[in-house]
Amino acid sequence: MQITEKKVSVISGGLCAVEGVEANGIHTGFKAQDKDLALIYFPDGATVTGVFTRNKVKAHSVLYDMKMIKAYTDFKAILVNSGNANACNGLNGEEDVQSMTSAVAQKLNIDAHEVLVSSTGVIGEPMNLKPFYAGLESLVGGLNTAGSTSAAEAIMTTDTVPKELSFETEIGGETIHFGAIIKGAGMIHPNMGTMLSYIVTDAGLSQNALNTALKSAADDSFNVMTIDGDTSTNDTVLLASTNKVMLDESYLDEFTAVLTAMCQQLSQMIARDAEGATKFVTVKVVNAATKSDAVSVAKTVATSSLVKTAVYGQDANWGRVIMAIGNSDAETLNPNAITIKFASGEGEVLVCHEGLAVPFDEGRAFNILSNTDVEIFIDLNTGDYSGEVWTCDMSVDYVKINADYRS
Amino acid sequence: MQITEKKVSVISGGLCAVEGVEANGIHTGFKAQDKDLALIYFPDGATVTGVFTRNKVKAHSVLYDMKMIKAYTDFKAILVNSGNANACNGLNGEEDVQSMTSAVAQKLNIDAHEVLVSSTGVIGEPMNLKPFYAGLESLVGGLNTAGSTSAAEAIMTTDTVPKELSFETEIGGETIHFGAIIKGAGMIHPNMGTMLSYIVTDAGLSQNALNTALKSAADDSFNVMTIDGDTSTNDTVLLASTNKVMLDESYLDEFTAVLTAMCQQLSQMIARDAEGATKFVTVKVVNAATKSDAVSVAKTVATSSLVKTAVYGQDANWGRVIMAIGNSDAETLNPNAITIKFASGEGEVLVCHEGLAVPFDEGRAFNILSNTDVEIFIDLNTGDYSGEVWTCDMSVDYVKINADYRS
């Protein structure tokens, strides 16, 4: 994974940093009091693509969006509610998706098939659409080109901060903008941490090209981030282009590089705000025999509860790291070639060299791991491939948050 | 998985319930003060087979035992130390295995190749054999036919109780005995919970037959138990027959059934005494399309941190269960056919019927989950196969125990 060398400026505005995007977020009644309904509106339309959860149990909104994006290329609105996942609700769940998209379309005076929808919250709880209908006037009426933050707030669950990001860059001699909101890793009322992200750009590309770029960017960002190894029924990333700046497809690689950098920053925002997390952890694997070996090792280390609790305890417990490496699906592993370091802004400490313990200063190692950003560096010494996965530590608060009764 | 219908009586004596088995356990110096060295001795020899960790990083003792069991069928002693895993110690680790087996062989006046060895404890820490040599006289001198409990104590790490089991049964008209000690799921000093189990029987069978029986029994017991999804570098199960009662191989299925029942009880002892565990959890999957689908679903549910923290919180949070089901590798899954119940000695509660929420009494569900033995029952409604996996809940203490600094 490499951060693009393209010059990118971080700008303000979130979603609305892109021309042709209005947004709003309000409280209706899916949650007790916080904002729970967001609307992203493209008055002149947008070409949209998406990547969705790989969980075999998918929420009704996910199934709907997948179908619509297959059938259509352009859309005008994305509606998102938090507080109810609308998953496992049977025919009622499907009907609720239809009712929600139709109602929004009517208010916006557009076609129902121009509306996409996402949900996050409790699974298997019937949707109560009354407060939704009651709030619709205010939701649509309040759409504006400074509404990104309110939309970011309305998609939060146990996220502790709203998350937005916007970029400006130059591609093919044109100034291109990107804006995004994201939420994830939270649960107070909901049953699991759903990741939802909405990314907009003015770079005009076909739906196919956008899809190629998004899949590639997601593989190098959202798909190499793990909080607890569980994938929700509702995960959704939508990429919308308002087509204000038409881009030749020969610039697709450049576009993908910037999109990837953006998705990487968005992913890291999620891991940093994960449930109970006290540390952001990068697991970096180098010199693997294949790319898939590198990623497999990094993911196995990043999902090991024993590794994550050790990091929480600031314990340079490399025995757990090598144990996790050995449990990975990597096909080429030589235990006697593995080298492990722990690193952070405080420095780095070599703890295992070619499969053997290296005497190290425990006080210094503890100090390195006391940083809030730590890296577990693994050299497999079996080839030329590398991979990186982002995660967080596992704290006492993680268990407390998730053992909390739903209601 | 079915418990054998064979009549089995639980008897006392542990390992030494079997004729031809002596044992002892003492403190030497691998641990600060507790017993840390066990010896199981077969004066007339025993046919031994084993199953070992699938972790690609294997301890020196594991590699040694695998090699010896391939080369020889009969052994006279099994030496086990706790407090140091002798893993990732390079050539020194290999030499220490040789030194330990040679020293024990000399004291017992047997050949070095008649000794097997296991270790459990910290990874990558050089072995200090001085206290071991100093204790050897007392270890061997104290061998006796009532020494099973002291051996069970000497292989403990954070286990809170020593674990022994012995059975008597009749096979082919002969009275057959089984004895075992087991440890696991503990860590104070060590880096991970290693599972070690030693099972003895007087039923005389070839090493091949014993191996067939042990593999089958392990698949239906140790391999369907999960504490935290991590597999140690040292896991070892040895099965030894003192051949006091020769058994025709036509009785192998009967023998396997009793051995399986024994291994199932041993596994459950581990899950009940797991780190920080407050509950023993059975995940039972029925009506799967294939055996592998059933086991995959049960394992994915049993290893989900979100499911395990919900059980700890006594929350009938079936949304997390269906999320985990959807994340399994099962090939045939129909989300609209899945039925989920929670059950315990307090009764059972249906929470999801054919993919849809069922209204239920939350107070009653909480009461059912307040039991220390709970079952998550999953009906996939796609076939005729079933599978069961045992685990425990994930508590605040699990994180506290594992975040504790090694030293």
UniProtKB/TrEMBL annotation, chains A, B:
It catalyses: L-glutamate + acetyl-CoA = N-acetyl-L-glutamate + CoA + H(+); N(2)-acetyl-L-ornithine + L-glutamate = N-acetyl-L-glutamate + L-ornithine. Keywords: Acyltransferase, Amino-acid biosynthesis, Arginine biosynthesis, Autocatalytic cleavage, Cytoplasm, Multifunctional enzyme, Transferase. GO terms for cellular component: cytoplasm. InterPro entries: Arg_biosynth_ArgJ, ArgJ-like_dom_sf, ArgJ_beta_C. The record marks G193, T194 as: Cleavage. One of its GO terms (biological process) is L-arginine biosynthetic process. The record marks T120, G121 as: Involved in the stabilization of negative charge on the oxyanion by the formation of the oxyanion hole. Its EC number is 2.3.1.35, 2.3.1.1. Pathway: Amino-acid biosynthesis; L-arginine biosynthesis; N(2)-acetyl-L-ornithine from L-glutamate: step 1/4; Amino-acid biosynthesis; L-arginine biosynthesis; L-ornithine and N-acetyl-L-glutamate from L-glutamate and N(2)-acetyl-L-ornithine (cyclic): step 1/1. The active site is at T194. It is an enzyme of class 2 (transferase). It is found in: Cytoplasm. GO terms for molecular function: L-glutamate N-acetyltransferase activity; L-glutamate N-acetyltransferase activity, acting on acetyl-L-ornithine as donor. Pfam families: ArgJ. Gene3D superfamilies: ArgJ beta chain, C-terminal domain, L-amino peptidase D-ALA esterase/amidase. Substrate binds at T157, K183, T194, E275, N402, S407. CDD domains: OAT. Belongs to the ArgJ family. Catalyzes two activities which are involved in the cyclic version of arginine biosynthesis: the synthesis of N-acetylglutamate from glutamate and acetyl-CoA as the acetyl donor, and of ornithine by transacetylation between N(2)-acetylornithine and glutamate. This is Arginine biosynthesis bifunctional protein ArgJ. It comes from Jeotgalicoccus coquinae. The gene is argJ.
